[in-house]
Amino acid sequence: MDDNLDTLEPWLGGLLAKTEPRQRMALARAVGQIMRRTNAARVMANVEPDGTPMAERKPKKPRKGQKERKGKAGRMFKRIELARNMQIQPSADDVTLSFKPRIAQTAKEHHFGLEAPVDRRIRNSIRVRYKARRLLGIAAADREAMLGKVMDWLDKR
Questions:
Q1: What does each C-alpha distance from 21 to 82, 91, 114 come to in angstroms?
Q2: Which of 26, 48, 88, 105 has a beta carbon 3.0–4.6 Å from 32's, enabling a disulfide?
Q3: Three-class SS string for 41-90?
Q4: Higher-pLDDT residue of 56, 107
């Protein structure tokens, strides 16, 4: 069931090849908006595309004289999930979802679990290896939503 797009791809490819590039680009933009919306909701909920929860952030140690906080450590990636930081780049043949350049480095470090300085503004800041947290991806529900959008678009034609 999760390979619906793969089985329909030759059929869809033939139909889409008959349409104008301008119309295909409009469809790619609509599909990209679905991708952006679903990925932003997942990042906001701290859930990976496969449905598993993201690795929790490290608890902060209290400073001298402060009480230890209990409960959730808080939501991660408060700025990454914003629509203005996720860019849709549609074309007549495909659509790409990426982050703006200033956000892209942080997203890359967390997505792949790379090592990076804690504070880039400090010259000799300590370096930490972050746990891998997949930020972008396509889940089965996303594929169904995208296929539904394409089918609706074809019904209007």
A1: 29, 8, 39
A2: 88
A3: HHHHCCECCCCCECCCCCCCCCCCCCCCCCCCCCCCCCCCCCHHHEEEEE
A4: 107
Nearest 5°: phi and psi at 35? -60, -45
**Predicted pLDDT of residue 151:** 85
- Cβ atoms within 10 Å of 107's Cβ, excluding its own: 20
Gap between the Cα atoms of 94 and 80, Å rounded: 23
Contact 34, 149 (CB under 8 A): yes
What's the pLDDT tens digit per position in 58-73?
A: 777 777 887 776 655 5
**Confidence band (pLDDT; 50, 70, 90) for 17?**
confident
For residue 116, the surrounding DSSP H or E stretch is: strand 115-117
